[in-house]
Every structure is written in C-alpha cells, then in structure tokens.
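Reviewer 2 asked us to include a model.

Predict the structure of this chain.
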Amino acid sequence: MYKRQLLYFLKSCYLGGEIGSVIWEYKSKSKKLITRIITGDNMLLGFVSCNSLYDFSNNTETKLELDWNKGKDFKIGIYDLEQLKKMISILDDTELKIELDMYKDRAVSMVINDGYSSMKYMCSDLSVINKPPLMQNIPDFQTLIFTLKDSKKKFSAGYKVFESDTFFCVLENKKSKDKGLDEIVFSIGYNNKIPTNRVDVCFGSPLIGLDNKEHFYNSKLVVKIFEILDMFGVVSTMMISNQGLALISNDKKHAPTNETKYGIRYDYYFVEVNN
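Predicted model (structure tokens):
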C-alpha cells in the first residue's frame, strides 16, 4: 500500500482530531480494510473502508489483498491515531512494506518500511478501545444535498466567524423557487426566538422533503467532514431524515453521482442536536 493511500484512510478515520482511537480490521474474504468510528459525545457514527489498492505510479486500482499478516484476517488496535499519523508522515511517499507481529488475530505491533526508513508502532489491546455500535433501523432520507466546493468553502468560513456557535440550522430556501432553483440553506447563528447575526449558505438540492420542524446539527463535525471531502476532491452527498438523522457519504448506493477515490469509501452519520 502506498503511503498516500494509507494516510487518506487514516485521516478519514481521524476526522481532524475528533476521533482518537480505532480498530482496523482486514477481511480476507471480502478483501476490505474496514473501521467503525464514534465521537466521544456519540454525535457521529462512521464507517470507513478501503476496497482496493491504488498504485500512484500509474494511477491504477487492483483488489485489496494485504500481505501484512500473510494474507490472513487481522485486527489492529490504534489507541493514538494522531501519533500514528505523524509517524507515517515522516516516511517517503512511496509504496510501503507493512509487517504485523501477531497474537492470534490481533496485531501486537506494526512495522512500516519505505525502503530507507522504518517505524514501529505498538498496537493497543482491543478491549481498551470504544467499539462503535452497528447502525440499525436507519430511517428513509427525505432530503438530498450536493456538497459542492463553493458552498463547502463558504460554510467553513462562516463557521470560523461563529466558532462559539456550535450549531447550524437546515432550512429550505423558499426564495430560490422564484429563480427556478431548489436549494437548502445551512444557517449558522440562526435562532428562531430572537434576531441574531447569522450566515446563510445555499446548497443545491435535487430532492427536498423537509418537514416544518427546524433541524440543528453540529457545525464543527460537518466542517471536519467537509475537509475530508476536499482532501479527496470527489462528489459526495448529504442526506437528511425528518427523524433527525443526517448522512454524508461517497457511496454510489446512496446517490449515483457519488464518487470513490483511491479505493476509500465513507459513511458519516450524525444526529440532530437540541438547540
């Protein structure tokens, strides 16, 4: 696996520091490297997988057949994602050789070599890492939103202005109907009780089924996810259920316009907050 692909996978789990510890699991039968993540406040639950090996020397993809444990299944407990990210960053941007020292199906340590330098990371016991639950009873999503570059950039800039205001409200932009457009507004600083300073950022939406309820979400988490989307530079969609659950994903099963890059797929579910 190339260093860049490994770092892309790691950063997709790390979410800019929101996730500290994870378990990576390789399934030799399905040929996938997978992980589930959860924030400390349980506001976000995510699933990240690496489904192919990407060769950066000729921009080709092949099946993910990892030889880290001689082709067998394995689990890696990573207690300090930030430290591992910094260690890998030291290595050259080339194809890496990775070897695991195993105890049963669990890695005790991981050695990563770039041909000139190497690093050894001591893996964590799996029992000390919080195991996120599986997503169950996922509701239907009534609203679909395109996370286009300009809108993401403006939302992130708006968040920096109102950084103390940790929530934003999702509203339908009814005025856009006059222009023949369908848009959703992410309103940072919105308050339905008193007039406030606020920034409204429009996002295109091919499907709007919002109910009359105002839906509030964590601004910081969405900004961190937007940074992942910008890292890959792919089309992803955000979906909102009237029951309050939201999802940002690049999986084509959610929208045919979604794109997967470097073999990495992600689903980030986050819940509505009470404001």
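The CA atoms of residues 232 and 261 lie 7 Å apart. The chain has a mean pLDDT of 90. We have added this to the supplementary material.
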